[in-house]
Automatic annotation (TrEMBL):
Keyword Hydrolase: no
InterPro entries assigned to the protein according to its UniProt record, in alphabetical order: Cry35Ab1_HTH, Recombinase_CS, Resolv_N, Resolvase-like_N_sf, SSR_resolvase
Domain Resolvase/invertase-type recombinase catalytic: 1-134
TM stretches of this protein: none
Cited Pfam families: HTH_49, Resolvase
Entry keyword Lipoprotein: no
Name this protein carries in UniProt: Recombinase family protein
Sorted UniProt keywords: DNA integration, DNA recombination, DNA-binding
Membership in a protein family: Belongs to the site-specific recombinase resolvase family.
Active site as annotated: 9
Amino acid sequence: MKYGYARVSTLMQDLESQIQALESEGCDKIYSEKFTGTKADCPKFKEVLSFLKEDDTLVVTKLDRFARSTVDAIQTVRGLFEKGVKVHILNMGLVENTPTGKLVFNVMSAFAEFERDMIVERLQEGKTIAKQREDFREGRPNKYSKKQIEHALGLLEIHSYKQVEEMTGISKSTLIRAKRKTF
């Protein structure tokens, strides 16, 4: 039996292209989840691993969908090979349980980890440069201007949070955070 596994890291990302690729590959059952890959404990991936048995095939679109490091990838694939499970990574091909197949897989895993590390490094460099700007703010940008927040905080002197929220559209939690920052 062919089992497909699709994963994206955030709720905003779309699983559809991965699922379509797995369907095109003829997967009998597809497991999917929106779960960060930085945690090794992806529930649906653990579930699919528990069903795999000898002569089954695990199909994923890319290596980084189930492994975050070279060590993690090698251990996972080694465990699957020990169970007699085949591994097919669509952008790499069938990973064969041969010395050559293992070598190619290990090299590709190392490159995937290197690529992820380079992305993180570039992000950190960009963030360091951005922090040097006077107007840098960590996190999401404010939905409301400073003037709107100040006006809403002024209204709190004579109105409740609920009333101010209804008048301005600024949530109670945003007002509480803003109030904390001003005192």
